[in-house]
Design goal:
Blueprint (H helix, E strand, L loop, with lengths): L1 H17 L7 H19 L3 E8 L2 E9 L15 E2 L5 H14 L20 H6 L2 H5 L11 H4 L6 H7 L17 H15 L3 H13 L21 E4 L2 E4 L9 H4 L2 E2 L1 H12 L3 E2 L2 E2 L3 H7 L4 E3 L3 H6 L6 E3 L4 E5 L2 E10 L2 E8 L4 E7 L5 H14 L7 H25 L16 E5 L3 E8 L2 E6 L6 E8 L2 E5 L9 E7 L5 E7 L12 E3 L2
Antiparallel strand pairs: 1-2, 1-14, 3-6, 4-5, 7-8, 9-10, 10-11, 11-12, 12-13, 13-14, 15-16, 15-22, 16-17, 17-18, 18-19, 19-20, 20-21, 21-22
Helix pairs in contact: 2-14, 3-8, 7-8, 14-15
Length: 515
């Protein structure tokens, strides 16, 4: 009788291990998700994708889908390299966490105590900004402010940080969330000051090497002779086009890492194990928890509440986005590189972590995040997130078309520029970005941003002193407007550029004509 009871208990324990959530075995769940991943890839017309899932300190799923390059058709696998973009931020916050553990610095140390050249628009903010502030996006700057300073420009890391002092804040200091790549760059630049090692070398020596992340790099230069690399793509007129890699070295600590799904699973394991790998403490549990602690609140709007009724809060920690979902705390981050989108996700209470890497601009990683979360958190409602997000993407494109049509109607026909074209020619300068030049080639004006060679475009007259501009070397940029301000003396005083884009605000750049 006792032996029968013992066998029953043993069988029950085995069943518990097989039924970690919702009464469905992990094997069945992974099989279901695998099919869903492939179906979604096809429906979204995405060239390639790689996904890895960690559960209870084990890599339970790692697989590639589709192709690395639409031209070569070589298959993606779990070791295929992708740019992870802003998922690099968790490496920067973790690097500084190590320095906190070592006693080299403190989270609330003032930034100017390490970076003498660090200045912001407001002197009080300059004097008060801490490392914690840098890493939690509460500087007062609006989201993506100043990104045109670094994007594809010749400005060095230090020069990018120096120019941030001319950016006008949108919010009061420490009151609102404003996503800032430049503040993360500043955080990473503290490392060479205190350790006599670059950010790149530090994360390699402290993370990549100890974790066995042998296919993880901090620069596109490092992958020039590496095989099994996915290529970035962009949909142009509905067709996937290989747009090649861009060098993000000058913003490295905020977004330059290139890795694979399998390597990133090791990074997630480290965090799920509270900083321990192979019985060795890499980061203390105290600092792991500090990185997951909410440091600045993010708003949960009515639309979000309607779509995710179990979501009650949203915040940012140190290198991680935080929110609740179906009763669990979610620790996550996204990455948006030109032609590549990624997502890393952890549910510490469930010992669950996963990474999704794709090689075209798309919303699928966000959709699949919720699909995987639904399966593992036992969400009763079975939403087809991939289909729903695809609908969002389609609606977004329709809105863009309507906006372009609306703008076209605002043109005043049969007007001419105030001055002859040669009067607009010359150099223009603004403290935030630097120089731009206007030239006349045949009957057209052309604008060239000098620190960023690919930022150039022909100007076509729109009305009065406004011209359309299209930077054809940057597929992600739409057609915009370039307007000239004429002073009371009848001379060109200023050039203003407005190219609608969710990531870059051209309107915050000032270009005064050099006379």
């Amino acid at each position: 009788m006792c032996s029968n009871k013992l066998r029953m208990v043993q069988q029950f324990v085995c069943i518990l291990f097989l039924l970690p959530y919702g009464g469905i075995s992990q094997e069945a769940t992974l099989k279901k998700l695998d099919k869903y991943f492939q179906t979604s890839l096809t429906a979204w017309n995405i060239p390639g994708m790689s996904i890895a899932i960690v559960k209870d300190d084990s890599l339970v799923f790692a697989k590639g889908y589709g192709v690395r390059d639409i031209a070569t058709k070589e298959a993606v696998d779990e070791n295929t390299l992708f740019a992870i973009a802003s998922n690099s931020k968790s490496f920067t916050s973790a690097a500084l966490a190590i320095l906190v553990d070592e006693g080299t610095l403190k989270w609330d140390d003032k930034v100017i105590d390490y970076l003498s050249y660090f200045k912001l628009y407001d002197q009080y903010v300059t004097q008060s900004m801490t490392i914690r502030d840098l890493l939690s996006h509460r500087s007062g700057l609006k989201t993506y402010s100043g990104d045109l300073i670094w994007y594809r420009s010749s400005h060095s890391r230090e020069e990018v940080v120096r120019r941030a002092r001319f950016l006008e804040p949108k919010y009061s200091f420490r009151t609102e969330f404003g996503y800032s790549n430049i503040m993360y760059l500043a955080a990473g630049e503290i490392i060479p000051i205190v350790k006599n090692a670059s950010w790149d070398d530090f994360v390699k020596n402290r993370f990549f090497d100890p974790l066995g992340m042998n296919r993880t790099f901090t620069s596109v230069k490092d992958i020039e002779s590496i095989d099994n690399v996915a290529m970035p793509h962009k949909k142009i007129n509905g067709i996937n086009v290989n747009i090649g890699y861009l060098n993000w070295d000058n913003i490295g600590p905020a977004g330059s890492i290139i890795s694979s799904a399998k390597d990133m699973s090791k990074w997630l394991k480290l965090h799920l194990n509270y900083g321990v790998v192979n019985n060795k403490v890499i980061i203390s549990e105290e600092q792991i928890r500090e990185m997951r602690h909410p440091h600045v609140s993010k708003r949960v709007g009515a639309g979000s509440e309607s779509l995710w009724p179990t979501k009650h809060f949203s915040a940012y920690g140190l290198g991680w986005d935080l929110f609740d979902y179906n009763g669990y705390k979610i620790v996550t981050h996204g990455g948006d590189y030109d032609g590549m989108i990624s997502q890393t996700v952890m549910v510490p209470e469930l010992g669950l972590g996963f990474v999704i890497l794709t090689n075209v601009t798309n919303l699928l990683p966000s959709a699949l995040m919720f699909s995987i979360l639904d399966e593992y958190t036992g969400m009763q409602e079975n939403n087809d997130w991939a289909d729903l997000f695809l609908e969002f993407e389609t609606i977004g494109k329709e809105v863009e078309v309507r906006e372009e049509y609306s703008n076209a109607q605002k043109r005043v026909p049969n007007t001419e520029p105030t001055l002859s074209l040669e009067k607009y020619v010359g150099e223009y300068y603004g403290e935030i970005y630097g120089k731009a030049e206007v030239k006349q080639i045949d009957e057209y004006l052309h604008v060239q941003f000098l620190p960023t060679p690919v930022f150039h475009g022909k100007l076509s007259h729109w009305h009065y002193d406004t011209f359309t501009i299209e930077m054809t070397e940057v597929p992600s940029l739409k057609k915009g407007k370039c307007s000239f301000v004429i002073d009371s003396q009848g001379e060109v005083e200023e050039m203003r550029i407005d190219i609608p884009n969710p990531d870059f605000d051209f309107t915050e750049l000032e270009f005064k004509k050099i006379k």
